[in-house]
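Give me structure tokens for this 455-residue protein.
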Amino acid sequence: MVKTKTIFVCQECGTQSPKWIGKCAGCDAWNSYVEEAFSPARQSSTAGTVFKDNPVLLKDVSIAEENRYLTGISELDNVMGGGIVPGAVTLIGGNPGIGKSTLSLQIGCALSRKDYKVLYVSGEESIKQTRMRAERLGAHDNKSLYIVNQTDLNIILDHIKNLAPDIVVIDSIQVVHQPEIASSPGSVSQVRECSSLLTNVAKAAGISLFIIGHVTKEGMLAGPRVLEHIVDTVLYFEGERYSSYRVLRATKNRFGSTNEIGVFEMQSTGLAEVSNPSEIFLSERPHNASGSVVVPILEGTRPFLVEIQGLVSRSSFGVVRQKAQGFDANRLALLVAVLEKRMDLNLQDKDIFLNVVGGVRVMDPAADLAVCMAISSALLDRPIAFDTVVLGEVGLSSEVRSVSQIVPRIHEAEKLGFKRCIVPRNNLKAGDALKTKTIEIVPVENLREAKDLLS
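Here you go.
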């Protein structure tokens, strides 16, 4: 009889300890240790696998292009790198209620219409609840979409073996459990073991596997970090809880770029694609309002315009506040310091609030100049012309540095009817490529020149 003992495992990073401790030594998380049963004689069912493939010359490896499954959801196909690769394992994460299960069911329905066999494993909803959601999505009449409500991993693997599907969706990995492991579902041991077994089966049978994962309050995927390492693609859903727009972003992709994003709108019939995000994000922009600036940002190869709003007010407390929604707070603090030091703007006793409209998170350095212009406009109460877009990276000496891919950014602004574009002077090296018939190019070299362009 194998003797079983208990250990304490950190639910954030998987670090083990023989006794309970308050702060994890691996990830510095507090109160994250949970007691779990542990059998020292037992080996993982995924361990001991012997690979008998012989080494081959690199030049002899076939690089024929892999056929991909096209879902017909262009926003998703672009983020995945041109479709779903057979045998690929994709992890989908996001806040509760943001649309992970809805997107997964839409993927299954779209592929089943193309005669691919899909198995949807719903561990959190009954079959009737899933059918009701499919009716709401208008996708309940598919002939090759199979649904099962199951959380036992062994039974799930039997269903996969008997059905031999092309695509499998696990909703979600936190409720699936391996009976041989004594710990509760959702623990580090269960998530790691179940994910490894499902991944091995998917790779061996060439099944495209989608795994839905919960996130922590910090917005990171719950469970051990090994979960993100063993999968091929990691997709995150971003968006405000009370906003109807969702952004799908790939943080890891072995079969494509991680720079592409997909934009969706949550409707009563499911997630609808947004083919022109620029028009959506600017549809409610106010006229002649100080602190409102439009910037053409670039996500991968896709340019679109977003509105950045700034608000500056006198602080009512002893310590000023700098809050940013959709923009890096540390970057905001740096730009505020540049404005105060180089531009002689009195911001030391002011609360500063910054918002990127539409729930988009901007990481493009080309938005620096727009942020500085929004703050300056709000402080001085001098609006920027409604038909003007701003882009440029700002250095610590208040210089405006050039940005990449400026031509598609300007063309996107031109399509939406903007008449003037404030750009870094060094970007004029593009020459004739920047010359357009309907938009005026205004070069600036530093922040002071840009501030003089305020109304």
